[in-house]
Amino acid sequence: MSSFLRLLPSVPDPGITGIIDILVVAFLVYQALMVVRGTRAGHILIGILIMVSLYAVATGLRLEALRSLLSFIVPYLGLAVIVLFQSEIRRTLARLGRKRWFGTGEFHAPEVVSEILLAVEQLSEHKTGGLIVLERDIGLRTFIESGVPLDAIISRDLVVTIFTPGLPLHDGAVIVQRERLAAAACFLPLTTNPAVSSQFGTRHRAAIGITEETDCLSLVVSEETGRISVASFGELHSGLTLKEVATLINLHFETPQQGMETIEESTADIPLQEAGPTVRPGERTR
Questions:
Q1: Last residue of some domain: 84, 105, 135?
Q2: How many structural domains does the chain have?
Q3: CATH code where residue 205 lies
Q4: Residue 70's CB: how many other CB atoms inside 10 A?
Q5: Which residues contact 282 (CB under 8 A, 6 or more apart)?
């Protein structure tokens, strides 16, 4: 203890600038850990840290054989990090870009929310699978170009017709951009989060995947159960009523409650089990 106390005077005073520097570095490290938490990238990061630790131990203990072997690998870890973590790096930069620094920027939910909810209600009643993506601040042009451009006025009949089984545009996502239906049959990235239940099919994984890379909101209707789900920021809320969907839309876009004036509760709106904030592993969906 006395030896430790003798070392304290030798520690330099960081000052205000040093404290700010330490806090910023700690914040960045924390954000980096949050990005890889619960993903396969977390295991890759642990493996890289183990290799670096082994190299440091081999150097300190003068284990020349081990140090020589690791010396051929460690210098390339920087390039490996960029290649292996490219999706996480892209997602982090997108999150930084979509933050409203200094309180600037306003988002508005589409004024056609009622038409979208009516379409979701009808799809749920007939157990017709559907995936509707609502653009927020980050543009979805890349994904719009992967589908069939429409640039149409949004209506319940149009959305229901698009997702009718057997028609050319039913397989894929519909993207709503501003107040227009921008495109249909769009391809979306699938989530690679191992925490997502394997019972969820391509449609739900695509709904989660697009919200991991952008700040959009995804509405999903299961074709097996008719269950309505909403995905945002990489999380899926399943078994929702139409009123709960409308609430989540308005919370996501930070707008007053709207879009439910013409919609009444129906039997199709009642969730098969109690709504929850996370994905439920027992549900088989597509």
A1: 84
A2: 2
A3: 3.40.1700.10
A4: 19
A5: 197, 199
pLDDT of residue 57: 86
Residues 75 and 129 in one domain: no
Q: Which 3 state secondary structure label does DSSP give 99?
A: coil
Q: Which pTM value belongs to this model?
A: 0.61
Range of the domain at 176: 113-269
Residue 150 lies in a domain: yes
For 139-249, where are the E strands, in sequence order?
148-153, 173-177, 180-186, 217-221, 228-232, 235-238
Do 132 and 240 sit in the same domain of this protein?
yes
Looking at the fold, whether 163 and 67 belong to one and the same domain comes out as no
Q: Give the helix/strand (H/E) hosting 134.
A: strand 130-134
Of 160 and 192, more confident: 160
pLDDT digits (tens, 9 = 90+) for 137-155: 878 888 898 899 998 999 9
For residues 131 and 67, membership in a common domain is answered with: no
Q: Is residue 278 part of a domain?
A: no
Question: Are 68 and 157 found together in one domain?
Answer: no
- At 94, is the pLDDT very low, low, confident or very high (cuts 50, 70, 90)? low
Q: How many CB atoms lie within 10 A of CB 270?
A: 9
Q: Edge to edge, what strands does the sheet with 130-134 contain?
A: 148-153, 180-186, 173-177, 130-134, 217-221, 228-232, 235-238
**Residue 197, C-beta contacts closer than 8 angstroms, at least 6 positions apart:** 279, 280, 281, 282, 283
pLDDT tens for each residue of 200-233: 888 999 999 898 888 889 999 998 888 999 998 8
What local confidence, expressed as pLDDT, does residue 106 receive?
46
Whether pLDDT at 262 is above 50 = no
The predicted pLDDT at position 5 comes to: 46
- 277 within domain boundaries: no
Residue 246 and residue 252: Cα distance in Å, rounded? 10
